[in-house]
Amino acid sequence: MDLTAESHSIPLSDGNSIPLIGLGTYADPRTTPKGTSCDSVKLAIETGYRHFDGALVYFNEHEVGQAIREKIADGTVKREDIFYCGKLWNTFHPPDLVRPALERTLKTLQLDYVDLYIVEMPTAFKPGDTFFPKDENGKHIYHETDLRATWEALEACKDAGLVKSLGVSNFNKRQLELILNKPGLKHKPVSNQVECHPYFTQPKLMEYCKQHDIVIVGYSPLGTSRDASWVNLKCPPLLEDELLVSVGKKYNKTTAQVALRFNLQRGVVVIPKSFSPARIKENFQVCIFDFSLSEAEMKAIEGLNKNIRFVELLMWSDHPEYPFHDDY
Fold this sequence. Notes:
The protein is α/β, with parallel strands linked by helices. It is built from eleven helices and ten strands. This is NADP-dependent oxidoreductase domain-containing protein.
């Protein structure tokens, strides 16, 4: 695969395409200064990023949309150059709430369509005004929804032109099969966004998705922000791994660039999240596209797999559709 900073999109099964590297825009609204997301996305567009991964539940889609619109207005990009992925949150799984949720994202972004809209989690929560509904004991309130019915409502959104492509996130094989085997399926999921990095290479899920023309989009491709509220901090820091350090030294690259290159060469889309100007540039520019790992290096890095999941989301592990109890 001949990848360059200007040309690194891969085809999706519905005829659209997705850039292999994107910018994750997750931000904690309590700690992220106002304007940070907007500035970061503008810098990323100037750096060459064309793929942005966002969500209603990140509480910053208004800033991301503003950045995209400003860079379109000043002639840096056209709307069709930008690939934006939005997400359907857990409280919007009932079919009658799906389109209003997408329309809310479009209104917040002030865009006419999103390029990819994905079911963020297979775990439905009680619908309502709060994104994380809890009872008086502080326990999350779940909701029973048929994922296939949710998917049918998404198909209608695609038919209405509100979204170009449909996908899922954090789905295991059984949950993917629910959708793929749905009677009357009109639009297949083109992607599955899951955790994917050298310590968690996802070989079985990758093989299954490959067989069904589903692209893997890897979140936390550099490990994670190590936020104790939802991350397993017992896991060793990925970017300090000796093998990644030594390969990096050989090519005069950072361990982050080696980890990203590893996934790109496997055909995994990566969406590293950063609001650091230096890192936004480091994770993209020629640094990733001007070298490639040898077959032996790819095998050695694959051998680092420890089946370590940084993002376990254990607070929802008692949900009937919690996806990580299954082998894959």
